[in-house]
Write a structure and sequence with these properties.
Shape: globular
Order of helices and strands: EHEHHEEEHEEEHEEHHEEHEHEEH
Strand content: 15-25%
Bound molecules: adenosine-5'-diphosphate, aspartic acid, magnesium ion
Helix content: 25-40%
Distance between the termini: 66 Å
Largest sheet: 8 strands, mixed
Strand order of the largest sheet: 3-6-2-1-9-11-12-10
Length: 332
Amino acid sequence: MSIVVQKYGGTSVATKENLEKICEKIIAYASKKIKLVIVVSAQGKTTDHLIAKANDYSNAPNKRDLDLLLTTGEIQTASLLSMMLNERGYDSVSLTGYQAGILSDSTYGNANIKHIYTENILNYLNSGYIVVVAGFQAIDKLGNITTLGRGGSDLSAVAIASALKANKCEIYSDIDGIYSADPRIISKAKLLKKISYNEMLEAASAGAKVLHNRSVNVGKKYQMPIYVKNAVKNSNGSLVTDDSLENPDVIENKNIKFITKKEDIAKICIVGDMIMSNKKAITKIFSLADEENVTIYMISFSELALNIIIDKDKSESFMKKLHSILIEEETK
Ligand code: ADP
Ligand code: ASP
Ligand code: MG
């Protein structure tokens, strides 16, 4: 059985008209030979609006409740798309992350996928259904609903494709593929036909949001071909693949592939004499980052200072906590 997993991102499913176009695309692709799993994001800016709503209704939204709220965005798109496919005479079923068997750890807001129980998806595929899965979400072993991190529907798609041993995973978005730089910033950016998992992982982690970095990592682990294509135009797109397949004819390749930038980050500087050898302080800093689910993108050390780069939206609360454990508690 040939299985293809397709993922449609926020802008591509933003309106009813967008969903109608996607229905046509799916119907044109669906055949007796190919089984389709469609992973969808929330429509347009729905996730941002839900976050703003949570912050309006509560000063400090509980992480578990926030995750439950955020998953409703993707669930809406999946249900709507499935209804539309059914109406057009195609058997289709919508599944939440939980119903799709996606098990994660309990890190609300940035959960890691532990396993995918594929039985439910496979039963529907074998019965001739198009399976529409709500992206960005999972369930932990206690039954709590989690989200996988912003942009996480890419991860849902690549992980599902890998678990199903699909032939490929296609990520449909609002651009023709992966470019040498964000085409919205650099008009002369070049479309890359192929890029290796390793290069794409670097670029995605450094801010190229065309693919979620963890989706690339999962693709690399399971050698899943990932295509990035335009959701509305017909384009060959870009293929993310193994280093050896990316440019097999050139033994040593010195070409520069990609330039990217990361926004909304903050540098935190912790100053203290001989900090480099202050193991107690360093352990506290990294343990706090782990507890608070703060990603450290870059570290630099000198004898006098430890600098770390983290997400701007987490920088104030992290600074307060650092101050509390490194200065207030120590001088008590
Ligand atoms: P989706 O909602 O479909 O997941 P995203 O907004 O997450 O889409 O990702 C697509 C966006 O990624 C594009 O609109 C583009 O501005 C941005 N982007 C950044 N770097 C690149 C790049 N090198 N190639 C293509 N797109 C890029
Ligand atoms: N809707 C989620 C977000 O905006 C996940 C995604 O779009 O992939 O981050
Ligand atoms: Mg995205």
